[in-house]
Each structure stands twice: as structure tokens, then as C-alpha cells.
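Recall from the previous lesson that a structure prediction takes nothing but the amino acid sequence as input. Here we apply that procedure to Cobalamin import ATP-binding protein BtuD from Methermicoccus shengliensis. The sequence below is the only information supplied.
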Amino acid sequence: MEVDTSEILSIVGPNGAGKTTLLRCIDRIVSPQRGCILLDGRDVRKMDRREVARQLAYVPQTAPHAFPHTVFDSVLLGRRPHVQWHTTDEDIEKVIEVIQRLNIEHLALREFNELSGGERQKVMIARALVQEPEVLLLDEPNSNLDIRHQLELMEIIRKLANEEGMAVVVAIHDLNLAARYSDRIVIMKGGRIVGAGSPREVLTEEKIREVYGVEARVLDVDGNPHVIVCGVA
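The prediction returns the following C-alpha cells.
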């Protein structure tokens, strides 16, 4: 599995397939039992943690519940890999830019602990973006968002990949969102990758039956595969 600059790679699969574990391996939180993770051709296990943090940002599925900071300060913490002794004007400007991009400037002075689940998720993504990573890892970023905000967030992610050359790896349950916004999809089952390719190559009725154990129809909608689940196989 590999991901290039300006590319969105979605990881899909049923619960327990290993999507989160794979992201945690990439971020060096856990070590793979076999093989290695390369970042620009270098083994992440041999890189300094601060160096990895300058190039790679990980947003877990669940935001912390006890985080006694304002939203602005919470996002500012994402600049830590770049800060030497004190916060600079550049750091402040970057935080303002990112919270505006994610449309959360109205939350800037709110306490993080007072936010809804969806608002917290956006703040955690903002904190990752101010790291200015080359690779962004997202674990179920839409899990606490309604339909409109899911689409808005995926549009932002697509724009980041296109305009800033960021490589994005996202673990996601919604096959139709994956099909719409991904350049490539990896599908997992039982801790193994069982398919990889374009959305059209991966999201077939046969592969969905094999991996999820359901019958589905795959239609063409606006040039993208669209999955309609019909029942248990």
C-alpha cells in the first residue's frame, strides 16, 4: 500500500478489519508485526518522533474528553513540532488561517470541553492541519457529523490534497463517501488488505459480498460507484 502527494487514499472494511491499527502503525504508535512503514523512503521507526510529527499528523476517531483549553489554544498545540522556545506571530497566523478554513472561528474562545462531539472532531482536525504535515491520517473523521457537515469536511480534505499537495489516508465506513472523494481505495478484512485500486475497481458487488457479507447493487452516479445495500448475503 502506498499513497502519493495530492492523493486521498481511503481504507474501508468491516469493524475489526484493522483500519485503525494500520493508521496507528503508520503513525508509529504501534509497531507492525511484519514489514515496515516508509515515509519519503525512510523507516518511521528509525526517525526522531519530532521529525515524524513535522511530516505526519494523525487524528484519532475519538477526541479527548478532558482537555482544559480554549479551542484556539487547543489548535495552537498542533504547532509544537515547529515551536522552539515560544509561540511566534507565524504560529498565531497559521492557527487563524486553519480555524477559518474549517469554519470554526466562532468557537475560538469556547472551552474544548464544552463542545459537541462533531465540534471536537473539527478542532482535532484543525490541530493536525496547523502541523503543516505532508501526510494527514484521519480515523473516521465523519463519525460525529451530520450529512451536510460530512460533505463539507470531505470537500475541505479534497481541497487540501489538491491545492497543498497533501497526501491523505482516511479510515472510513461510508463506502459512498469513499467512492466520491478518494483517488484510491484499500479494502481490508481480518487484518489483511484484500483489494486495492480505484473506487470503481474495488467497490464491486462481488468484493462487497466477500468482505461485508451483504448483497449490494453498485450503480453509476455522476461517474462514481454508488453502493446500495440490499440485504445480508
